[in-house]
Design brief:
The protein is mainly beta and 141 residues long. The chain is built from two helices and seven strands, in the order βββββαββα. GO terms for molecular function: oxidoreductase activity.
Length: 141
Amino acid sequence: MSGASLTAAAPASDQPRGSAGVTALRDLSPTIREITLRADRAFACPPGSHIRVAVNGAGREDYRSYSVVEQAGDLLRIAVKRQPLSRGGSAFMWRLQPGDTVRMTPPRCDFPLTLGAPHYLLLAGGVGITPPNNAPSAARR
């Protein structure tokens, strides 16, 4: 692993200030792991939300964003793709075990879904599928 940071320092408002415990892990494929987190408090989490998690790679703290796949109260599910040449983010997240704790930000939504439209067309592919993953069920309500 390289000791170089992959991202610039996060603004103070975007740095993890809460915590969450890992409650469950499930491999969705050989390279995608679903991680269930129990946050220290419940959050509003509209479709398209993500959290920033403090990760430690090569002995240096950094931050990575992960889309929230599903949320119920204080439980959040994220999916993390394992990158073979990871320099911190996915390697750190794939080492987590139930009972571990991570530092995280509250969910933030940069892909808001405007409700009330007569029709929706949702397109996504690859890693881009996770932000709108729960949008269809929200649009049907």
